[in-house]
Specification:
- The chain is α+β, with helices and mostly antiparallel strands.
- 27% of the residues lie in helices and 38% in strands.
- The radius of gyration is 39 Å and the shape is globular.
């Protein structure tokens, strides 16, 4: 009986060894297949991700080259301003000026005078208003403006960034100004002999509107 048991034990051990070996081979096969299945999608995902990232980067790259202004100023003028307090934070202003216009694509200088009015917020350093531009021949245009400025509290001197849109019904020299948007600098110096500030404006060459040959609606 013992001999039978020993033979059975040997057979059992042999069977167990075969089973263990088969199990090991089967397990290794599963691991190899699993690694093969995992590796391929990861590589594909990485490639897809890179492609997507490249596409996304290309589509979001800004195409604008910045704010483009005319090479030469279209308007330069000295301005004298009179302010009347409305309350502790706002002023009502009237002003007059004289200077020159240089129309786009020309070298002709046109003498002008201006008269305007507006509101100034002292707290936010912001101004808005409207002015009439008049030539010596009597042609007129209207400029609606917005300005943000910074002042030195001790001296009253400062700088302002101005944006204006110009409209005119004139069929003469000022006709090219209709619908024009201009941007520029207001140099504020209250002690200046010729005026409180000196305004310089350039045409905004946006590629839209008059610059692109697109008809604009008539001024209101």
């Amino acid at each position: 009986m013992m001999h039978y048991l020993n033979n059975n034990k040997k057979n059992s051990n042999h069977h167990l060894l075969l089973i263990a070996t088969a199990a090991t081979i089967f397990t290794l096969a599963i691991i190899v297949v699993a690694l093969s299945m995992v590796t391929t999608p990861v590589a594909a995902t990485t490639t897809t991700s890179n492609t997507t990232a490249t596409t996304s980067s290309t589509s979001t790259t800004p195409s604008s080259s910045g704010i483009e202004l005319s090479p030469n100023p279209i308007q330069q003028e000295s301005i004298r301003t009179i302010g009347t307090p409305i309350n502790q934070t706002h002023l009502s202003i009237t002003y007059s000026g004289n200077g020159t216009l240089t129309l786009p694509n020309t070298t002709e200088t046109i003498n002008i005078t201006t008269n305007g009015s507006g509101i100034i917020s002292i707290m936010t350093q912001y101004a808005q208003g409207k002015e009439t531009i008049r030539t010596e021949e009597g042609e007129t245009a209207t400029a609606t403006f917005t300005e943000i400025f910074q002042l030195n509290p001790a001296t009253g001197e400062g700088k302002g960034i101005t944006i204006a849109v110009i409209h005119t019904n004139s069929p003469g020299k000022l006709a090219p100004l209709n619908g024009m948007i201009a941007a520029g600098i207001d140099d504020i110096q209250p002690n200046r002999a010729s005026g409180d500030s000196f305004l310089t404006l350039w045409e905004w060459e946006s590629g839209i509107g008059n610059n692109a040959g697109v008809a604009l609606p008539p001024p209101v």
